[in-house]
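Sequence in, structure out. Go.
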Amino acid sequence: MPSRTPEDVKKHAVASLSVAPVGNGHHGRDFYKYFLTTYPENRKFYKGAENYGEEDIMKSERFDKLGDAILLFVHVLANTYDNEPVFRAFCHRVMLEHKDRGIDPALWKIFFNKFWRGYLESKGANLTNEQKTAWDTLGAMFNEESQTALAKMGLPHLSAKEIKKHAVESLSVAPVGDGHHGRDFYKYFLTTYPENRKFYKGAENYTEDDIIKSERFDKLGDAILLFVHVLANTYDNEPVFRAFCYRVMHEHKDRGIDPELWKIFFDKFWSGYLESKGATLNDEQKSSWHNLGIMFNEESQAALAKMGLPHA
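Output:
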C-alpha cells in the first residue's frame, strides 16, 4: 500500500504538478476549461459564464485570473502538506476566497480525487498509484478543514445528514443490544490508554481479562455504546444532539474525567476502537466523526461549565 506520511504525500503531489507549473503558460485557465466543459453543471457557480463554451473560457480574462489563483492555491497546499498548521490555515484562506460564490460544499469533498486528478491527466500526467493516493490523502484533510472553515463563517458546509449517514454506517461493527461491544470499548480504551484507568476507581490495575469479566464495565459499556449511537443518529437534529451532549456530561459528572479527553474522544478513542473491531474507516467516516466530535466537545465543555465543573 502506498505510504501516506506527510512527507510522502507532499513529495508525490508536488511531483505530479510538473505538468501544470506556476507562472508558465495558462495552466490555471486550462483547469477551468477542463472543469467547466467536463462538468458543465458547475457553470452555475460562475455568474455570467453559465453558457460559456471552451473557446469562451480560453479567451476570458476572468478565467485567466481565477485560474492563476486556483493553480497557486493548489501548489501551496501541495507544498505545505508536511506542515499541518500552515496547510490547515491555508485551507481557511481558500474558503475565504470562495465564500461569496455559493459553491456546493459537497464539491470540496471530491475536488482533488475527481476534478484535480482528472485535470492533471487531461494535461498528459500519467499518475502513479502513489500520486493518486497523495491527492486523495491531501484532499481528505483539505475537505475536513474546509468544511470546518465554512461552518465558522456561517456558510453551508458538509451536511448534517451526510455526517449522520457516515457515522451511523461505521457503527455496523458495534451494534446496540448484540454482544458486548460496549464492554469491548473499555477493554480497548483502558488497555490501549492505561493512563486513563485512574478515572475508574477500583479498576486502576485491571487487566484485559478483568475488564472482560467485569459486570461494572458491562454496564458502563452498554451505556457509552448507546450514548454514541444516539449522538450519531441525532446529529442532523442539532437541538436534540446538543441536549444529549449535556446528558452525557451529567452522567459523567462525578468521575473526575479530564475535560481535555472529550476533545479527542471521537477522533482518537472512538475511531481507534471501531478500527480495533475490524472497521476500515473511509475518509468520509473519519471526517464525520471528526465533525461530530467538534460539536460534541463544544457542547460538552459548555455543559461542564454550567455544572461548575472543570472544562477546557
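Check: The two ends are 38 Å apart (CA to CA). The chain has a mean pLDDT of 91.
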